[in-house]
Design goal:
Layout lengths: L2 E7 L7 H13 L11 E5 L3 H14 L3 E7 L2 E4 L1 E5 L6 E3 L10 E6 L7 H4 L14 H14 L6 E3 L9 E2 L2 E2 H8 L10 E3 H15 L6 E3 L10 E4 L2
Parallel strand pairs: 1-2, 1-3, 3-7
Antiparallel strand pairs: 4-5, 5-6, 8-12, 9-10, 11-13
Organism: Paraburkholderia phenoliruptrix
Pfam families: Peptidase_C14
Protein name: Caspase family protein
């Protein structure tokens, strides 16, 4: 039998996605998961839409007898489930990953919060030409972007369970780096989501301290539905 597994993950602001991919890969290769060969598994982390489409075309040409598709990352719903592939916000619909093989299993670990029409068109790109001519304008755009996010309870921790959060003469290590995270925003980036801000700070903290691993509890919705940490004037 010809097998094929396609494991896709969007790690943008989500600490657990890389682990999801490794765990699923390990499960497939285990006896319990069917003893798949590594050559039968394709792992795509934060792929571009072009890269993914290329892989899908090769899978179709190969005509596997059985195909498993697993996605872990950000998602939303607008007539169909949308999957966000990478930090650039490239999206595909779930139906684009279906009906590729005669026997196929698709698993989606993502949010499916409904995108209202007004919100769906309210993308960050719409702000590209906006100018910050006053504090009131900053507040207006900030408020609008916060209200665009789906209702959620986002939690950021300076360390993992059983660990200690370090303090320094310059302030708390994690909080200091979290507040510096907007400095890494691209010139064309208007908003910084809480997930990306946390990831930016986490990487620095874990480089400085091998015994402190910041943690988070975030919803896996689309970038346009996430809460933001900062706005760039």
């Amino acid at each position: 039998m010809k097998r094929k597994a396609l494991l896709i993950g969007n790690t943008s602001g989500l600490q657990g996605v890389s682990l999801d991919l490794r765990r699923f890969d390990g499960f497939l290769k285990s006896e319990r998961g069917g003893a798949w060969n590594q050559s039968e598994i394709t792992l795509l982390e934060n792929p571009s839409k072009k890269t993914l489409y290329g892989v899908l075309e090769r899978v179709k040409r190969d005509k596997p007898d059985y195909l498993v598709v697993m996605f872990s990352g950000h998602g939303g719903h607008a007539r169909s489930t949308k999957l966000e592939l990478n930090q650039d916000g490239e999206e595909i619909y779930d139906r684009e990953l279906e009906n590729i093989a005669a026997r196929q299993l698709n698993i989606y670990d993502c949010c499916r919060a409904v995108l209202q029409p007004a919100v769906e068109s309210f993308k960050a790109e719409a702000y590209a030409v906006a100018t910050f001519d006053s504090i009131s304008r900053v507040r207006e755009l900030y408020d609008a972007r916060i209200l665009q996010a789906v209702e959620q309870q986002a939690i950021l921790y300076a360390c993992s369970i059983g660990e200690y959060a370090r303090d320094t003469a310059q302030g708390a290590l994690y909080l200091k780096e979290l507040l510096k995270s907007p400095d890494a925003m691209r010139a064309d980036q208007r908003f910084l989501t809480i997930g990306i801000a946390h990831e930016t700070a986490r990487r620095v903290v874990e480089t400085v301290r091998s015994d402190q691993h910041p943690d988070s509890c975030l919803v896996k919705c689309l970038t346009s539905q996430q809460l933001i940490f900062a706005i760039s004037p």
